[in-house]
Amino acid sequence: MGKGDIRTKKGKIYRGTYGNTRKKAKAEHPAAPSVKKAPAAKSAAAKKK
Which of 3, 29, 45, 49 is a good FRET partner for 17, with 20 to 30 A between their CA atoms? Predict the structure, then answer.
């Protein structure tokens, strides 16, 4: 059980992988909230009525 064992934390650090033994740290700042788009302009055909 050492660097070659991917089931241990030391082995995961050595290989650069993550999993149950070595959790990834969550980002402190979540992704930016999505920006709501303005409603689409009505077509010219609708304005002629």
Answer: 29
